[in-house]
Amino acid sequence: MMSEQSGQPNQRRLPMGKIEVAPRAIATIAARAVGQSYGVVGMAPHTLREGVAQALRHEDAHKGVAVRIGDDEIAIDLYVILEYGTRIAEVARNVQENVRYAVEHALGMPVARVNVRVQGLRMQERVKG
Questions:
Q1: What are the per-10-residue average pLDDT scores of the chain (129 residues)?
Q2: Which CATH number applies to 4-122: 1.10.10.10, 3.60.15.10, 3.30.70.1350, 3.30.750.24?
Q3: pTM beyond cutoff 0.85
Q4: Angle between the 88-107 and 23-35 helix axes, to the nearest 10 degrees?
Q5: Residue 24 dihedral angles phi and psi, to the nearest 5°
Q6: Can you point out the beta strands (E) in the chain?
Q7: Dihedral sign (CA 48, 54, 58, 59)
Protein backbone atom coordinates (compact mmCIF):
# COMPACT_ATOMS: atom_id res chain seq x y z
CA MET A 1 0.00 0.00 0.00
CA MET A 2 1.56 3.29 -1.07
CA SER A 3 1.30 6.39 1.05
CA GLU A 4 2.64 9.80 0.35
CA GLN A 5 3.17 12.85 2.44
CA SER A 6 0.53 15.43 1.77
CA GLY A 7 1.16 19.07 2.63
CA GLN A 8 1.97 19.01 6.33
CA PRO A 9 4.48 16.54 7.83
CA ASN A 10 1.78 15.17 10.19
CA GLN A 11 -0.44 14.10 7.28
CA ARG A 12 -0.42 11.11 4.95
CA ARG A 13 -2.58 10.59 1.91
CA LEU A 14 -3.59 7.01 1.25
CA PRO A 15 -5.72 5.54 -1.55
CA MET A 16 -8.64 5.31 0.90
CA GLY A 17 -8.26 8.83 2.32
CA LYS A 18 -6.08 11.04 4.47
CA ILE A 19 -4.56 10.46 7.91
CA GLU A 20 -3.77 13.51 10.02
CA VAL A 21 -2.26 13.34 13.51
CA ALA A 22 -3.15 16.27 15.79
CA PRO A 23 -0.38 18.11 17.65
CA ARG A 24 -2.04 17.11 20.96
CA ALA A 25 -1.70 13.41 20.02
CA ILE A 26 1.97 13.94 19.15
CA ALA A 27 2.43 15.74 22.51
CA THR A 28 0.87 12.80 24.36
CA ILE A 29 3.26 10.33 22.69
CA ALA A 30 6.23 12.59 23.49
CA ALA A 31 5.16 13.11 27.12
CA ARG A 32 4.86 9.37 27.66
CA ALA A 33 8.38 8.82 26.28
CA VAL A 34 9.72 11.57 28.56
CA GLY A 35 8.06 9.95 31.57
CA GLN A 36 9.84 6.67 30.82
CA SER A 37 13.25 8.36 30.61
CA TYR A 38 15.85 8.00 33.36
CA GLY A 39 16.48 11.11 35.44
CA VAL A 40 13.21 12.88 34.65
CA VAL A 41 11.15 13.82 37.70
CA GLY A 42 8.30 15.36 35.73
CA MET A 43 7.10 17.80 33.11
CA ALA A 44 6.58 21.52 33.62
CA PRO A 45 3.97 23.60 31.79
CA HIS A 46 5.43 25.35 28.76
CA THR A 47 3.65 28.51 29.90
CA LEU A 48 5.98 28.82 32.90
CA ARG A 49 5.45 32.05 34.84
CA GLU A 50 7.57 33.70 37.51
CA GLY A 51 10.34 31.13 37.22
CA VAL A 52 8.58 28.52 39.35
CA ALA A 53 8.73 25.05 37.82
CA GLN A 54 5.59 23.27 39.00
CA ALA A 55 5.50 19.58 38.11
CA LEU A 56 2.43 18.63 36.11
CA ARG A 57 0.23 15.71 37.11
CA HIS A 58 0.74 12.60 35.00
CA GLU A 59 -2.52 13.10 33.08
CA ASP A 60 -1.52 16.70 32.22
CA ALA A 61 2.03 15.86 31.09
CA HIS A 62 1.18 16.74 27.47
CA LYS A 63 0.99 20.39 28.63
CA GLY A 64 4.76 20.24 29.08
CA VAL A 65 5.19 19.61 25.37
CA ALA A 66 4.94 22.14 22.55
CA VAL A 67 4.58 20.68 19.05
CA ARG A 68 5.27 22.92 16.06
CA ILE A 69 4.36 21.69 12.62
CA GLY A 70 5.97 23.56 9.75
CA ASP A 71 5.68 23.06 6.02
CA ASP A 72 8.04 20.11 5.97
CA GLU A 73 9.02 19.34 9.57
CA ILE A 74 7.82 18.55 13.06
CA ALA A 75 9.64 20.20 15.97
CA ILE A 76 8.99 19.29 19.59
CA ASP A 77 9.87 21.37 22.66
CA LEU A 78 9.93 19.54 25.99
CA TYR A 79 9.75 21.33 29.34
CA VAL A 80 11.16 18.99 31.96
CA ILE A 81 12.16 18.80 35.59
CA LEU A 82 15.17 16.57 36.19
CA GLU A 83 16.43 14.75 39.23
CA TYR A 84 19.11 16.70 41.09
CA GLY A 85 22.51 15.04 40.82
CA THR A 86 22.04 13.52 37.38
CA ARG A 87 24.18 14.54 34.42
CA ILE A 88 21.86 17.07 32.80
CA ALA A 89 23.34 16.89 29.31
CA GLU A 90 23.27 13.09 29.31
CA VAL A 91 19.69 12.90 30.58
CA ALA A 92 18.57 15.54 28.05
CA ARG A 93 20.25 13.65 25.19
CA ASN A 94 18.52 10.42 26.30
CA VAL A 95 15.18 12.23 26.42
CA GLN A 96 15.74 13.56 22.89
CA GLU A 97 16.50 10.08 21.57
CA ASN A 98 13.57 8.45 23.39
CA VAL A 99 11.07 11.04 22.18
CA ARG A 100 12.33 11.03 18.60
CA TYR A 101 12.15 7.23 18.48
CA ALA A 102 8.69 7.05 20.10
CA VAL A 103 7.13 9.68 17.83
CA GLU A 104 8.74 8.45 14.61
CA HIS A 105 7.91 4.82 15.46
CA ALA A 106 4.28 5.58 16.33
CA LEU A 107 3.60 7.93 13.42
CA GLY A 108 6.00 6.79 10.74
CA MET A 109 6.80 10.47 10.24
CA PRO A 110 10.20 12.12 10.75
CA VAL A 111 10.86 14.56 13.59
CA ALA A 112 13.24 17.38 12.65
CA ARG A 113 14.07 18.66 16.15
CA VAL A 114 13.53 17.72 19.78
CA ASN A 115 14.47 20.59 22.11
CA VAL A 116 14.78 19.81 25.82
CA ARG A 117 14.27 22.79 28.12
CA VAL A 118 15.21 22.00 31.72
CA GLN A 119 12.85 24.06 33.88
CA GLY A 120 14.09 22.86 37.25
CA LEU A 121 15.85 20.25 39.34
CA ARG A 122 14.29 18.27 42.16
CA MET A 123 15.64 16.11 44.91
CA GLN A 124 13.97 12.70 44.81
CA GLU A 125 12.47 11.87 48.18
CA ARG A 126 14.09 8.79 49.68
CA VAL A 127 11.94 6.27 51.49
CA LYS A 128 13.30 5.51 54.95
CA GLY A 129 12.99 1.94 56.02
A1: 59 84 93 95 76 67 88 90 95 97 91 95 69
A2: 3.30.70.1350
A3: no
A4: 130
A5: -65, -40
A6: 4-6, 8-14, 17-20, 40-43, 65-69, 74-83, 113-122
A7: negative
